[in-house]
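Example S7 (structure tokens).
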């Protein structure tokens, strides 16, 4: 229902201007006769009854919601009415040709309406009785509200109606159906994506082994060569690491040895010994070769004597074994010697 536009009387304007603390409406005068509204009216034309049970509250700066009730057995048709202040001044009037309300003897009169003013004066007006006020409900005002239909609830644009548990339930069921459809489509898309991913494979090549499709966690591995494999130099499916190199047999002292990487057990040995004067001297390797000594080179052997130039120690070929070798010196003085030997 649209707000009813009351006309404020001249006396009503005067009261608004003169009363700094606002005006107070305490009664509603009713008439069965339609009349011409004018600011000069001081009493409701044809007024036959004045109702004191009047309540109201400002719904906005320009609109007041007012409620009036008549519990008598009177019978009448309401076409005109006026608002009276607490001192009896007629503040505003309204009238129309068609009845606003028809009251019968077995029913009581309950009028609830919104009164609109051109200026923002609603906040300056109060009422004498607010015990049965029924203003329109808002987010901050308790009051009367219309129940939204399912269509209005689904539209989600109306902020003046309220929704019942039934309508809310219907709306939630509908939304859940939409959500289920969306989730089903999302699940199908996810399944398709998962199928595409699991169809892919990751497989190691070269030294890397392992892998497979993406249906499970996969491991790509490069196997580390053992010390024995590094020494043998035959495996092609593993990688040499510092650990496997560090595990080679070796001794790096003055008389020492070490196994050559990738040499299938090839070993290099070195050391020092003293060749005796005018005699054969046996030299022992720091470590016996597992199979054989392939070559040995003795160096040095010049003692500095008069005959050293022509009689240095020399290797005796027939004495080479996997354990050592001998040299013969025709020098009159003993001589320091060094050697390098290689074998397996």
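Recovered sequence:
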């Amino acid at each position: 229902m649209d707000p009813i536009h009351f006309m404020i009387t001249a006396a009503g304007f005067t009261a608004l201007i003169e009363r700094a603390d606002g005006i107070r409406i305490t009664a509603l005068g009713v008439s069965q006769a339609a009349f011409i509204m004018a600011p000069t009216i001081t009493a409701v034309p044809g007024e036959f009854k004045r109702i004191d049970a009047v309540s109201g509250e400002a719904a906005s700066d320009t609109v007041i919601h007012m409620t009036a009730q008549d519990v008598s057995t009177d019978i009448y048709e309401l076409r005109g009415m006026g608002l009276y202040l607490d001192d009896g001044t007629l503040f505003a009037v309204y009238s129309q040709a068609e009845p606003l309300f028809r009251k019968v003897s077995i029913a009581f009169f309950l009028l609830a309406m919104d009164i609109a003013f051109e200026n923002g004066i609603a906040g300056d007006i109060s009422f004498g009785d607010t015990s049965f006020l029924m203003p329109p409900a808002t987010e901050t005002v308790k009051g009367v509200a219309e129940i939204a239909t399912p269509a209005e609830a689904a539209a989600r644009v109306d902020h003046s109606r309220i929704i019942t548990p039934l309508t809310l339930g219907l709306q939630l069921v509908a939304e859940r159906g939409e959500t289920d459809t969306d989730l089903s489509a999302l699940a199908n898309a996810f399944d398709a994506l998962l199928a595409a991913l699991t169809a892919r494979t990751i497989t190691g090549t070269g030294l890397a082994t392992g892998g497979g499709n993406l249906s499970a966690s996969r491991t790509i591995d490069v196997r580390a060569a053992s010390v024995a494999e590094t020494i043998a130099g035959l495996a092609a499916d593993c990688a040499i690491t510092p650990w496997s190199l560090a595990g080679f047999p070796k001794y790096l002292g003055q008389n020492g040895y070490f196994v050559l990487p990738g040499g299938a057990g090839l070993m290099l040995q070195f050391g020092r010994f003293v060749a005796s004067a005018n005699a054969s001297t046996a030299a022992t390797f720091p470590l016996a070769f597992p199979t054989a000594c392939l070559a040995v080179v003795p160096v040095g052997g010049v003692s500095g004597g008069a005959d050293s130039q022509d009689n240095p120690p020399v290797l005796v070929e027939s004495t080479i074994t996997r354990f050592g070798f001998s040299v013969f010196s025709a020098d009159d003085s003993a001589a320091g010697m060094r050697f390098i030997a290689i074998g397996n």
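Notes on this example. The first strand starts at residue 4 and ends at 5.
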